[in-house]
Amino acid sequence: MLIKFYNANLLDPITKTKGLADIIIEDGVISKIKLKRKSTPIQTKGTGSKNMLEINAEGLYLFPGLIDMHTHLREPGYEYKETIRTGTLAALRGGFTSVCCMANTFPVNDNPEVTYYILAKAKEEGSCHVLPIGAITKGLKGEELSEMAMLREAGCVAFSDDGMPVMNSIIMKRALEYSKAIGAPIISHCEDINLSEDGVMNEGKLSFYLGLKGIPRASEEVMVARDILLSKYTKGHLHIAHVSTKGSVELIKFAKEQGIPITAETCPHYFTLTEEAVKDYNTNAKVNPPLRTEEDLETIKSALKEGIIDVIATDHAPHHIDEKKVPFQEALNGISGLETAFSLSLRLVHEGTLSLEELIEKFTVSPIKILKIRKEGIKEGAQADLILVDINKEWKVDKNKFVSLGKNTPFDLWTLKGKVLFTVKGKKFLDMRTEE
Amino acid sequence: MKDLIGIKELSRQDIEEILNTAKAFKEVLQRDIKKVPTLRGRTAINLFFEPSTRTRTSFELAEKRLSLDVLNFSVSTSSVVKGETLYDTLKTIESYNVDYIVIRHSSSGAAKFVAENTFASVINAGDGTNEHPTQALLDAFSILEIKGRLDGLKIAIVGDIIHSRVARSNLYLLSKFDTEIRFVGPPTLLPQEIPDNVKIFFDLQEGIEDVDVVMILRIQLERQKGAYIPSLKEYSHFWGLKKELLNYIKKDAVVMHPGPMNRGVEISTEVADSSQSLILRQVTNGIATRMAVIYMLNPKEV
Q1: With 50 as the cut, is the pLDDT of residue B193 above it?
Q2: What pLDDT sits at residue B224?
Q3: Which positions in chain B touch A208 (Cβ < 8 Å)?
Q4: Chain B within 8 Å of A279 (Cβ-Cβ)?
Q5: Could you list the residue range(s) of the whole structural domain that residue B146 is in?
Q6: CA B29, CA B24: separation in Å to the nearest integer?
Q7: A315 in catalytic set
Q8: Cis before A289? omega within 30
Q9: Which residue of A has its CA nearest to B197?
Q10: Complex ipTM, two decimals?
Q11: Which of A79, A84, A148, A56 has its CA nearest to residue A390?
């Protein structure tokens, strides 16, 4: 199979390549990159052949495949929400060629058997690169460390009890210490569950107005502060998941200035939506941490610009419709995010918050550094791992067209600017050029 | 109007209309024959997911006085946890072809959820800590009877504000009139961020000084466990309304309580049984007010 892109704007922060180029992919490998000064008319030889695709990429961008550091693939155990097959297809549709899948499956990914199962499933049925994240503690219970080194050996790239904070400080301290021998970061879901109590949205005037129990910002910030101090103390690499508040940003900034080895991520919903999105008890906007206020949102944007927040991750959390079609308090937390995350993030470029290059770094170079994974980028001889994007194409989100089994999105029917048109991951590719 | 979900959604004019209608129904209730044939042939169901005797009885009586056929459907939360979702319960009930659904549920927003998923008229009889609109309407009706107006009044709401749907509905109702609203209680039971038009008092005596209406809220026994208050004894000592404190409110001020009371905790027996207490009047007015609400809703409007 031959895929040829002509006259594409190549932008690859991994290889630090930028410019107009023709690129040829042969059986999943980039065989030729021709950088050029100006676009040339396409030669149409060989069109119509089943084994060759010629794509006029004039005015379009080629980026390296995006990496999602925070995905819930739900398999094993919750295949009714999502499977490795559907989740990785949704990834390709959203421009992601690598996803890091969280450990809160059933059984929990706290032992190598589960890791092997996920990797075998991914090889068999998956469409993109699956990088498992192992549990910090056995059963996500926060009591005993999981076999982190064996999990690492089996293929886990990081450790997290995501969804469940590690409440016991001594356990978190030991995890950060132990991780140094393994060379993989600890990803912390920062939340003091005592402070959150049974809160379901951001605490403030709106939560009082709606009669919903609030989750204070302090519930996140208390743990961000604790984990920063534990990282300083142990020198273990801490990565803070889904940052949602201004206070967390300030703490992370302080920590980075001190040279404490921490990194951080946020998700598109935290710089796109505020708590106003749950005003009508919209369960599809119920996430944890909860959507906050305009002030938090603006601070998160600046933090992305200033590099205080390193990564944009999806926190793709697919749920079955029955789990959202209930009163707000009872609905599960999460947004099915893989298929909208990149387009939502492109808004940051269109409004001038980030340059295109900075945005792509948040999805590629930063996760690569944090996870210490090898990605060659777009270069001759490398496995094809790239996406073709029209950053100006307007399209309407339709949850019913999601490949993900999770249709839980607060962005349904939104018009977004910028769309992934073509994703190539090795010999696999997904052509979305004719999608509305 | 198809449903009554909350006071939030009502205008001042809507409220005045309901209160006027309630007045007419109160007259009916004072007759020898208290039943009107208005809604004969229609059916109401009281769908209660939380135990309640008073509100359910009040609704049931209101429905019967309007000649509605009445069904009571009480579901203990535990059996819901075991299986059926609210949506399925609702669809089952809808299949009985009922015209009115009166719902009480422990989740905020549940009444709205039900209204959005059924053709029947839905009346919120209390959803979580969100709203209890008929309580606020009957409270307003009772105040009006005594005071003749709502505008210009000072009202203190005392106690467990954050957990109270009664406090919220009263806040929204009174905010639509020219009133001064005060929240009084220990900081742990007051909202973290205060609504713009509310004054906060931690001290009971200061909080009720010179007010026209004191609304006392019920304190739940389990608040001690959540560390909201150290003990009922301490709460009662500092925030319980006792006879001596009545000297600080206006001479013609009234004291209200939505019931059921914890005598000797949030309100002393002397106050509850005093001439300034509207508590039993509130109960009586509940029926007329609920009749008015049901009468004014239109199940056929889609």
Answers
A1: yes
A2: 82
A3: 162, 168, 191-193, 195
A4: no
A5: 133-283
A6: 9
A7: yes
A8: yes
A9: A205
A10: 0.94
A11: A56
**Cα dihedral value A35, A40, A45, A49, nearest 10:** 60
- Band the pLDDT of B78: cuts 50, 70, 90: very low
Q: Which letter does DSSP use for residue A17 in this model?
A: E
Please state, in angstroms and rounded to a whole number, the distance separating the CA atoms of residues A59 and A41: 13
Secondary structure E strands in A247-403: 262-266, 311-312, 385-396
A198 touches chain B (CB under 8 A): no
Q: Which residue do the tokens 């995350």 mark?
A: A341
Cα dihedral value A250, A251, A252, A255, nearest 10: 120
Q: Provide the CATH number for the domain formed by A2-62+379-431 in this structure.
A: 2.30.40.10
How many Å is the Cα radius of gyration of chain B? 19
| CA–CA distance, B231 with A68 (Å, rounded to integer) | 50
Taken as a whole, chain A contains a residue count of 436
Amino acid identity at B239: W
CATH number at residue B18: 3.40.50.1370
Find, among A36, A35, A160, A61, the residue nearest to A359 by Cα.
A61
* Gap between the Cα atoms of A379 and B23, Å rounded: 82
Cβ atoms A251, A222 nearer than 8 A? no
Torsion of Cα atoms, A415 then A80 then A282 then A310, to 10°: -60
**In chain B, which residue's Cα lies nearest the Cα of A216?**
B192
CATH among 3.40.50.720, 3.40.50.300, 3.30.565.10, 3.20.20.140 for A65-371 = 3.20.20.140
Structure-block tokens of residue A74: 């739900």
* A115 secondary structure, DSSP code: H
User: CA A425 to CA A64: how far, in whole Å?
Assistant: 10
Q: What is the pLDDT of residues A417-435, one digit of tens each?
A: 999 999 999 999 999 999 8
